[in-house]
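Q: For a teaching handout, I want to show students what a protein-ligand complex looks like in token form. Below are the inputs, and the small molecule is phosphoric acid mono(formamide)ester. Please produce the holo structure.
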Amino acid sequence: MVSLKGRNFLTLKDFTAEEIGYLLDLAAYFKKLKKEHVLHDRLKGRNVALIFEKTSTRTRCSFEVAAHDLGMASTYLDPKSSQIGKKESIEDTAKVLGRMFDGIEYRGYGQEIVETLSKYSGVPVWNGLTNEYHPTQILADMLTLREYFGSLKGRTLAYMGDARYNMGNSLMIGCAKLGLNFRAVAPARYFPEPELVDQCKKWAEESGADILLTEDVSEGTKGANAIYTDVWVSMGEPDEVWEERIEDLTPYRVTMDVMKNAADDAIFMHCLPSFHDLDTEIGREINKKYGLTCMEVTDEVFRAYDKPLFDEAENRMHTIKAVMAATLADDWDI
Ligand code: CP
Ligand code: NVA
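A: Here is the structure, written as tokens, with phosphoric acid mono(formamide)ester included.
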């Protein structure tokens, strides 16, 4: 039997395929309970702290709704209204929050911050996105793929865009562990770090998957079951990088031609938020400056493939609930 009680959830590197499978099963179980309006508030009386040094819609709402459904109270700390980092070190913050809360979520910058929080707090710490990894997103992605294709092993996921940041890294790890073929489709300087690629290749060998890094869009997306992309400029990156990203990554935009080159029943995936039209402030600024009407994906693809995409967003909540439940208690009756 899998037990994750007391564990941190900092990166999928730390978890076996069996443990990740358990989290997906637990998430599917909670999803079913939620749809049937069955209460599952076994963690009544517990408290969780949610630290967000970067903005969020999905991750914050998922943690808050999931905590509430499990019977827990949550406290949201935004970047401006706490002492974190500016007047108090991460170590001291961890020691304080660990005395008051049963678990801590952190979204922000370097991976070393979640590591420090976990080292000093004495309670489970959950990574809600760092520059390097976004592990709760991958659980939602895998649950969505499992719902659409029935199984994960042997499927192929092609990631187009900046593959060396949190989403590219984490998808490669998740695919390698769970036996999906992973393709990074990008200019070579956007490929993930060679050290991480080597590590993932070892996991992929064990799980029966392969990893391909290619600059060739046609080769990389051919027959893929899922075409995945993310914003070209991530939170916390300086505005100055827009110009080169637009130049480098426009050939790697997800278009209808890309989708046609994928498998017949391929789905389009995106962690969201996305710049697919001019209905955002940043989208309009970029349009004014560079003339683009969409960025990483065309509006046509985004709207034509929206069902799995918003299932993926919903699944953030069910999977985050599974992470908190599994690391705070054992013996879920799945
Ligand atoms: N995908 C994701 O993490 O979304 P938010 O930034 O809205 O949390
Ligand atoms: N790469 C993006 C992911 C957002 C969910 C970012 O870090 O901003």
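A: Two things your students might notice: The chain has two domains: 12-133+315-328, 137-314. Strands lie at 47-52, 73-77, 103-107, 125-127, 156-160, 181-185, 211-214, 226-229, 267-270.
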